[in-house]
Design brief:
Layout (H helix, E strand, L loop, with lengths): L8 E6 L2 E6 L4 E6 L2 E6 L14 E2 L3 E6 L6 E9 L3 E6 L8 E7 L9 E13 L3 E14 L18
Antiparallel strand pairs: 1-2, 2-3, 3-4, 5-7, 6-7, 6-9, 7-8, 8-11, 9-10, 10-11
Length: 161
């Protein structure tokens, strides 16, 4: 490889083949002992289309439907990422509904302060039991000990439907 290129590589060795994947371009260099050949990978070589990793976790969820403040519900998370939440809701939700969601976070801040993850987003998929939410905004808030996940507060200026 020419030294003029300043590209970082990841290396994966399988038996006698070594794969070098660049972080900037979808190219793989396959080295077989003394010979070298380049293989171009398609942009979406992976069947996974999500931009962020999902982390499986089972936590209590409480939500408020944003355009109907009296409409609340609860459920359990399936998985979570920085851009999406998948959860089992107590009832079917409609695609396009705006939700404010709260989750009791399982890790304490500084070893003793309870946290609550507050999120707002839109329902992008829903069937009889599983709902997928695209997260538009999120923040961690501290909460008093002994209080279960509070329903998210919906401000009047946030009631866009």
């Amino acid at each position: 490889m020419p030294e003029a290129l300043s590209v970082q590589y990841s290396t994966l060795t399988i038996t006698n083949l070594t794969f070098h994947m660049t972080l900037r371009a979808p190219i793989v260099v396959v080295m077989e002992r003394a010979s070298e050949r380049r293989i171009w990978l398609p942009r979406d070589a992976s069947p996974e289309r999500r931009a962020t990793n999902r982390f499986p976790m089972t936590l209590e969820v409480r939500y408020v439907v944003r355009c109907a403040p009296a409409e609340t519900g609860s459920g359990r998370t399936i998985d979570l990422s920085s851009s999406g939440l998948s959860f089992v809701a107590d009832r079917p939700l409609l695609i396009g509904q705006k939700l404010d969601v709260s989750i009791d976070w399982p890790v304490l801040l500084n070893g003793g302060v309870q946290l609550q993850l507050m999120m707002s987003g839109s329902v992008v998929r829903s069937n009889e039991s599983v709902t997928a939410l695209q997260i538009e905004r999120h923040e961690f808030k501290t909460r008093r000990g002994g209080v279960k996940a509070a329903l998210p507060e919906t401000k009047k200026e946030e009631l866009e439907c």
